[in-house]
Amino acid sequence: MMSPLIVWAAIGLFTVLGFVIALRAARANSGTAGDYYIAGRDVGGMVAGLSYAATTYSAFMLVVLTGLTYRGGAGALGFELIYFAGLSLLVVFAPRFWLVARRWGFISPAEMIGARYGSRNVARAMALVSLVFLLPYCTTQMAGIGLLLSGVTDGGITLFGAVATGAALSMFWAVLAGLRSVAWTDAALSVVMLGSGLLAVGFAVSELGGLAAFGQGLVADHGAWLGVPGSGLWSLPTFVALAFPWFFFALSNPQVSQRLFVLRDFRAMRRMILWVLGFGFVFTLIAVAWGFAALQLVPGLENSSMATPALLTSGAVPVWVGLLLILGILSAAISTLDSIALAVGAMIARDFVRREGVSNDGLQILAGRVVIVGVILFASYFALQKAQVVDQLAALSAAGLLVTVPPIFGAFFWSRGTAAGALAGILGGAAVAVWMAILQGVSVFNPLLPFTVGGVSAALFVGVSLATRPRAGALDFAAEIADDMSRHRAW
């Protein structure tokens, strides 16, 4: 195990770095809602890309994905590569999100969709559905922090102490300076996460005798884990059930789609996409290789989520590398928490607090800060309580957020879509998701769940739209930005 004192010292240095970055970011803020929630739309491509990557490739990667590899083998790689393939949606949607946000001043994805259909109720419905499915997901991030810190110290850092630390850091960075603070911290710590991940895998493979011995050991002792779809956990239905909603993650999750509003210009957008793709591909390979290394160096774990703490304390990885990796995972989890809290705060501020024609930026920022504190406290409390319904909703989050995808596609590619159709698709699909998963007990590993939720949502959106008329105040995004799309040579 690692000494709790050494881990606390590393976290202390991490906190000082974050404090300095947050203070500098706070001084750069101008006091407007746009500056607080989306950094004044002036973030460069590298910072935006690394921040997007840190938010997306969260504690999930080296806690959950590594555990899935440990438990089920190669299917974990295929599952994550489906998500990676879904990032190709950015090529199509990033220019459109950025252009309409610039033209009409949108700050939250829900605000954008509501304006497209001419209805704040659509925006509010999207905001509430995002809240329902993202809050429990925040709980899993906080639980990941607790699992990591308590695991590597063998309980020397208690679950409560770990969660309280994560909550305090999350609140401070997000509340003080908003997205600019989070993005700058992400950019610095994502480099640490990637570098320490490469080092950690290198040391683990070296402990096994090098790349050749690593591969030979896998084939000889765990050959079933290398098959498709893999051993134990994975089957074709399970793979499809998990992979299908994750393909649309870049659109369905507002904490990442909102990142498309922050970019300085088209050049920054292209650079951001390249940074996200490059980081994501390398880090996916790191997480899977780390899981296979754990399978050989620390076999027989009952809880596969403990693979990373067990491997870090096995002696295969130097303490200093382990500490860097812990800080990288901690930073990624905090980034995800802060990004979700900021996205939800922006939706509440813009779609419930903002009044048309009235300048109330201070009130919008205050409302967002209250929401941020509430989200983080919720995540902390339920991470400690381990409430079953929260675990169920967290597992359901990817499938549940699919209900926002049809209205997003319709916003840019189907002018016949209506507010009534968007409302029916979002609320009807969300109700089906909760009914199937919570009341009927349909497992998230059953492909019936995401395909039914997505299918019902799409059918309601199309069917009700065809039966109703677009509102007079609805916007026609496709027509309005057509010239800009051609000028920028975007798809």
Automatic annotation (TrEMBL):
Listed GO CC annotations: plasma membrane
Pfam (any one): SSF
Segments crossing the lipid bilayer: 6-26, 47-69, 81-101, 122-149, 155-179, 191-214, 234-251, 272-297, 317-345, 366-384, 396-414, 421-442, 448-467
Keywords: Cell membrane, Ion transport, Membrane, Sodium, Sodium transport, Symport, Transmembrane, Transmembrane helix, Transport
GO biological-process terms attached to the record: sodium ion transport
Membrane topology according to the record: Multi-pass membrane protein
PROSITE patterns from the UniProt entry: NA_SOLUT_SYMP_3
Catalytic activity: L-proline(in) + Na(+)(in) = L-proline(out) + Na(+)(out)
Compartments, as annotated in UniProt: Cell membrane
Molecular function via GO: symporter activity
Listed Gene3D superfamilies: Sodium/glucose cotransporter
InterPro entries: Na/Glc_symporter_sf, Na/solute_symporter, Sodium:Solute_Symporter
Similarity-based family: Belongs to the sodium:solute symporter (SSF) (TC 2.A.21) family.
Protein name in UniProt: SSS family solute:Na+ symporter
UniProt source species: Rhodovulum bhavnagarense
